[in-house]
């Protein structure tokens, strides 16, 4: 479970300047051995009408890996959702599951069993039929090779069995209703192709056999690759486009330049001042949609360290931050300040108005922030910097990733704001890998980060409040980077896990939101935009605010499948 959430965030993070994220390594790939000379980034004119050019990954050169059981950053997009497919797709904008390789699911035995009806007539790209045995085989692979169990499904599963060719049953070791998401959205692999793979963890699967809309590798060079339609795709007439084309862009700057020059049809990038830089260049065809259904951008304070173990200090830090300025200067008004629940628009239907109203600690008020710090025993010294009872000055780094320009600007504003209330905060930038290692291990004072964007607040508050996700400092934690746990929250989380009744889940969520507001375990800054840009010069069918059938962004896996199966040639 934790790893799937992390990998979803890293998909977004691998965009260079793009700062948000689902979903394990954004390092630049080495040149592929034996690859052909670099191809030109722009497709020949004759082919432009058939292949959608996409900017989703930032890589200096491509490595041929189509293993869908690995984290997204280890295999080429759209391996996990485009080449391979899951049983169901949770559509955030519709707040519901879309049947995919499975037609339906049912709970049984007091939510201790979960049964899926596999869609009949689905074939693998080599013509072999998909059956429930393939589903069971996939999950047995995850059990046998723990490194592939990105969602930790075997932490709550007891067994999986194909009852017949069309029915697969999962037995739970404990009641864990939220586990539906991780089972339903697991990419499924064919048993007949994978049963003889000696090491599925290192397997690159260079010529995939899959059920997705795109399976045929037409070109694979170090600077460009292209994948064509599945000849046996189960959705009749789909996909509507012939192929997907991927030039290698080493970073967001290069990808944005290609987007602005009209070389890219579809992207998921942070583009500053997009109306002027992109839309105005071709108002008829250049479009974007940034709904606030990404995760929430967070300032994490390490609660294992003083003074961040004191709720008064955490709330004072929050009140010292001018979120309106951050939204205007750093985020180009693409978003708005967060409320005190820490929830993004993904969870609008769950939001507790009373919790929002009581959370005044997200409002900018330097005077109140100073008063709270005084109350907590942190007085200003002669130099204006506050000191604690141990006489140590409050002097801290605010960690952020080098090159993530929106977050860097936000962190600069935060540092300035904190200095105004007597906290000597300094911006500290790191390359992604060392930054991510530090935040996962709890080796930081203050750090920018993100929350979960999964279907309901359970996942958000398990990360923020649950003791089960707390790891010792120095141990990698996929969640709960701030190391905060609350026993009262544990009881509520367990109650949520045990029920599939929406009304009961809403009641529990309301209580979790109140607990979050009381404890301020993290400092929410703003809901993260779901970045997405597209051109209708050659292709149509993209979702937008007038036709919100799914998220536009290619960065949300597996929701991007909903888009890939709807894009049409113009």
From TrEMBL:
Family that this chain belongs to: Belongs to the bacterial solute-binding protein 5 family.
UniProt keyword Transport, yes or no: yes
Protein name, entry field: Dipeptide-binding ABC transporter, periplasmic substrate-binding component
SUPFAM superfamilies given in the database record: Periplasmic binding protein-like II (SSF53850)
Any GO BP: peptide transport
GO cellular component, one term: outer membrane-bounded periplasmic space
Matching Pfam families: SBP_bac_5
Keywords from the named record: Signal, Transport
InterPro entries in UniProt: Peptide/Ni-bd, SBP_5, SBP_5_dom
Residue stretches spanning the membrane: none
CDD domains in the cross-refs: PBP2_TmCBP_oligosaccharides_like (cd08509)
Originating species: Cystobacter fuscus (strain ATCC 25194 / DSM 2262 / NBRC 100088 / M29)
Domain Solute-binding protein family: 97-467
Signal recorded as keyword: yes
Signal peptide location: 1-24
